[in-house]
Write a structure and sequence with these properties.
The structure is a single chain. The chain is mostly beta strands and about 160 residues long. The chain is built from 2 helices and 12 strands. It has a single domain, classed as Sandwich (Immunoglobulin-like). Helices cover about 15% and strands about 35% of the residues. The protein is globular.
Length: about 160
Amino acid sequence: MSSIAVRTSLVWIALVGALALPQAARAQDTHTITVQGIAWKYNGKLSTAASPIMVDDLKIGDFVEVTLPGGIPHGFVTIIKKTPPPSDKFLDAVLACGETPASKPKAVLKEVCAAGAASNFNKIFVGTLKLEVMNTFTTPVDFFCVQHKDGMPGTLKLK
Protein backbone atom coordinates (compact mmCIF):
# COMPACT_ATOMS: atom_id res chain seq x y z
CA MET A 1 0.00 0.00 0.00
CA SER A 2 1.39 3.41 -0.91
CA SER A 3 2.17 5.99 1.76
CA ILE A 4 -0.51 8.31 0.31
CA ALA A 5 -3.14 5.58 0.65
CA VAL A 6 -2.05 4.90 4.23
CA ARG A 7 -2.24 8.61 5.12
CA THR A 8 -5.66 8.93 3.49
CA SER A 9 -6.89 5.88 5.40
CA LEU A 10 -5.60 7.29 8.68
CA VAL A 11 -7.30 10.64 8.01
CA TRP A 12 -10.61 8.88 7.35
CA ILE A 13 -10.27 6.76 10.49
CA ALA A 14 -9.58 9.88 12.58
CA LEU A 15 -12.52 11.73 11.02
CA VAL A 16 -14.96 8.85 11.56
CA GLY A 17 -13.71 8.47 15.14
CA ALA A 18 -14.23 12.16 15.88
CA LEU A 19 -17.75 12.07 14.45
CA ALA A 20 -18.58 9.02 16.53
CA LEU A 21 -17.83 10.86 19.80
CA PRO A 22 -20.87 12.17 21.67
CA GLN A 23 -21.47 15.90 21.21
CA ALA A 24 -20.55 16.61 24.83
CA ALA A 25 -17.14 15.01 24.38
CA ARG A 26 -16.37 17.23 21.40
CA ALA A 27 -17.46 20.68 22.56
CA GLN A 28 -17.84 21.69 26.17
CA ASP A 29 -18.78 25.31 26.69
CA THR A 30 -18.55 27.28 29.92
CA HIS A 31 -21.52 29.51 30.75
CA THR A 32 -20.57 32.14 33.33
CA ILE A 33 -23.21 33.62 35.62
CA THR A 34 -22.14 36.65 37.65
CA VAL A 35 -23.96 39.22 39.76
CA GLN A 36 -24.66 42.91 39.52
CA GLY A 37 -25.96 44.25 42.81
CA ILE A 38 -28.89 42.03 43.74
CA ALA A 39 -29.35 40.47 40.29
CA TRP A 40 -27.92 37.54 38.37
CA LYS A 41 -26.14 38.55 35.15
CA TYR A 42 -25.74 36.31 32.09
CA ASN A 43 -24.96 37.28 28.50
CA GLY A 44 -25.55 40.95 29.26
CA LYS A 45 -29.01 40.38 30.81
CA LEU A 46 -30.04 40.88 34.44
CA SER A 47 -32.58 39.03 36.56
CA THR A 48 -35.38 40.62 38.55
CA ALA A 49 -37.73 39.06 41.10
CA ALA A 50 -40.36 38.81 38.34
CA SER A 51 -37.98 37.83 35.52
CA PRO A 52 -35.50 35.02 36.23
CA ILE A 53 -32.16 35.00 34.43
CA MET A 54 -32.42 32.37 31.68
CA VAL A 55 -29.40 30.25 30.89
CA ASP A 56 -31.11 28.40 28.06
CA ASP A 57 -28.22 27.46 25.80
CA LEU A 58 -26.79 24.51 27.74
CA LYS A 59 -25.68 21.17 26.30
CA ILE A 60 -24.88 17.94 28.10
CA GLY A 61 -21.26 18.16 29.23
CA ASP A 62 -21.21 21.97 29.39
CA PHE A 63 -20.12 23.81 32.51
CA VAL A 64 -21.99 26.47 34.46
CA GLU A 65 -19.69 28.77 36.42
CA VAL A 66 -21.23 30.96 39.10
CA THR A 67 -18.68 33.65 39.89
CA LEU A 68 -19.34 35.78 42.96
CA PRO A 69 -17.17 38.72 44.03
CA GLY A 70 -16.99 40.00 47.58
CA GLY A 71 -19.28 42.75 48.83
CA ILE A 72 -22.97 41.84 48.80
CA PRO A 73 -23.32 38.23 50.06
CA HIS A 74 -24.57 35.73 47.45
CA GLY A 75 -24.79 31.98 46.97
CA PHE A 76 -26.35 29.48 44.55
CA VAL A 77 -28.87 26.73 45.23
CA THR A 78 -31.31 24.80 43.04
CA ILE A 79 -34.99 25.09 43.92
CA ILE A 80 -38.51 23.91 43.26
CA LYS A 81 -40.19 27.13 42.21
CA LYS A 82 -43.49 27.91 43.92
CA THR A 83 -46.11 30.52 43.14
CA PRO A 84 -46.61 32.39 45.35
CA PRO A 85 -43.16 32.26 46.95
CA PRO A 86 -41.33 31.14 48.98
CA SER A 87 -39.77 28.45 46.80
CA ASP A 88 -38.25 25.31 48.30
CA LYS A 89 -34.60 24.34 48.01
CA PHE A 90 -34.03 21.23 45.86
CA LEU A 91 -30.63 19.97 46.95
CA ASP A 92 -30.95 16.62 45.14
CA ALA A 93 -30.40 18.31 41.76
CA VAL A 94 -26.67 18.87 42.45
CA LEU A 95 -24.04 16.28 43.24
CA ALA A 96 -21.89 18.50 45.47
CA CYS A 97 -18.24 18.01 46.42
CA GLY A 98 -17.75 14.85 48.46
CA GLU A 99 -21.15 13.33 47.60
CA THR A 100 -21.53 10.02 45.80
CA PRO A 101 -23.84 9.45 42.82
CA ALA A 102 -25.69 6.81 44.85
CA SER A 103 -26.56 9.44 47.48
CA LYS A 104 -28.27 11.66 44.89
CA PRO A 105 -29.79 9.61 42.06
CA LYS A 106 -31.81 12.65 40.89
CA ALA A 107 -28.70 14.80 40.35
CA VAL A 108 -28.53 16.61 37.00
CA LEU A 109 -25.55 18.86 37.81
CA LYS A 110 -22.20 17.83 39.28
CA GLU A 111 -19.99 20.25 41.17
CA VAL A 112 -16.43 20.27 39.83
CA CYS A 113 -14.08 20.18 42.81
CA ALA A 114 -10.39 19.96 43.53
CA ALA A 115 -9.49 16.89 45.61
CA GLY A 116 -10.64 17.44 49.19
CA ALA A 117 -12.17 20.85 48.44
CA ALA A 118 -15.30 22.02 50.26
CA SER A 119 -18.49 22.63 48.32
CA ASN A 120 -19.74 26.12 47.45
CA PHE A 121 -23.24 24.82 46.69
CA ASN A 122 -26.10 25.98 48.94
CA LYS A 123 -24.04 28.51 50.90
CA ILE A 124 -22.84 32.09 50.70
CA PHE A 125 -19.38 32.21 49.15
CA VAL A 126 -16.87 34.42 47.37
CA GLY A 127 -15.22 32.86 44.33
CA THR A 128 -16.50 30.29 41.85
CA LEU A 129 -18.92 27.39 41.86
CA LYS A 130 -18.42 25.22 38.78
CA LEU A 131 -21.12 22.75 37.77
CA GLU A 132 -21.08 20.18 34.97
CA VAL A 133 -24.33 19.46 33.10
CA MET A 134 -24.84 15.70 33.48
CA ASN A 135 -26.49 13.43 30.92
CA THR A 136 -29.44 13.10 33.33
CA PHE A 137 -30.32 16.78 32.76
CA THR A 138 -33.55 16.81 30.70
CA THR A 139 -35.90 19.43 32.12
CA PRO A 140 -35.24 23.03 33.22
CA VAL A 141 -33.76 23.52 36.69
CA ASP A 142 -34.64 26.63 38.70
CA PHE A 143 -32.26 28.25 41.16
CA PHE A 144 -31.98 31.30 43.38
CA CYS A 145 -29.50 33.17 45.51
CA VAL A 146 -29.07 31.66 48.97
CA GLN A 147 -29.20 35.15 50.50
CA HIS A 148 -31.86 36.88 48.37
CA LYS A 149 -34.01 33.84 47.61
CA ASP A 150 -37.01 34.44 45.30
CA GLY A 151 -35.86 38.03 44.77
CA MET A 152 -32.96 36.70 42.68
CA PRO A 153 -34.21 33.77 40.55
CA GLY A 154 -32.83 31.95 37.55
CA THR A 155 -33.37 28.93 35.31
CA LEU A 156 -30.95 26.52 33.65
CA LYS A 157 -32.23 24.89 30.47
CA LEU A 158 -30.90 22.77 27.61
CA LYS A 159 -30.55 24.37 24.18
